[in-house]
Amino acid sequence: MARKVVKIAVTTTGIAGVAVGSAIASIPGGVAELLSYDVKYTSQPGTVDVTLTAEQPNGVTKTLATLTSQNTDLAMRRPLEAGVDSVGADLADTTKSPNLVKPLVFGTLKVAVAQGDAATDAVIVTVVLNVL
C-alpha cells in the first residue's frame, strides 16, 4: 500500500455568482481508500457549492463530500462511512468507531463547482489516498 496525493483544480466559467466547472483525476492504482481531502478557494462568493465524487466504471457515482454555500478554505478532513457486513448491509450501530470505515474509491475522482465566480483554478481539492 502506498499513499498518493492527487490535486484537482477546477476552472469555472460563466457569470459571477452562477459560474460552473468540473475536473476529473484518475485514481492511482485504480482502487484506494480515501484518507483525507482539503479544499482551497480563490476569491469565490459565499454561494459557491463544491461536490467531490468518485465516478465508478460501473456507472455508480459515490458522493464523498458536499459543501454548500461555503467559500472558506477547509483544512484536512477525514471522511468516514458506515461499514457493511458480509452481505452488503450497513452495520447497525455507526456510533461505534469500529463500524465506521474509510471510503473505498475506484474509477475517477470528480470535483464539480456551481454558483461560483469565473476563475482559473477557482477551487483546488487535494485528496490523499491509500492505494490498495
Description:
This protein has 132 residues and is mainly beta. It has a single domain (2-71, 100-131), classed as Jelly Rolls (Sandwich), CATH 2.60.120. Helices cover 0% and strands 62% of the residues. It contains no helices and nine strands. The chain has strands at 2-12, 19-41, 49-55, 61-67, 74-77, 81-82, 100-101, 104-116, 119-131. The strands form two sheets. Strands 1, 2, 3, 4, 5, 8 and 9 form a seven-stranded antiparallel beta sheet that branches. A two-stranded antiparallel ribbon has the order 6-7. A hairpin with a 5-residue loop joins β3 and β4. The radius of gyration is 16 Å and the shape is elongated. It starts with a strand and ends with a strand. 22% of the residues are buried.
SSE topology:
Elements: E1 2-12, E2 19-41, E3 49-55, E4 61-67, E5 74-77, E6 81-82, E7 100-101, E8 104-116, E9 119-131
Concise synopsis of the structure shown:
The protein has 132 residues and is mostly beta strands. It has no helices and nine strands.
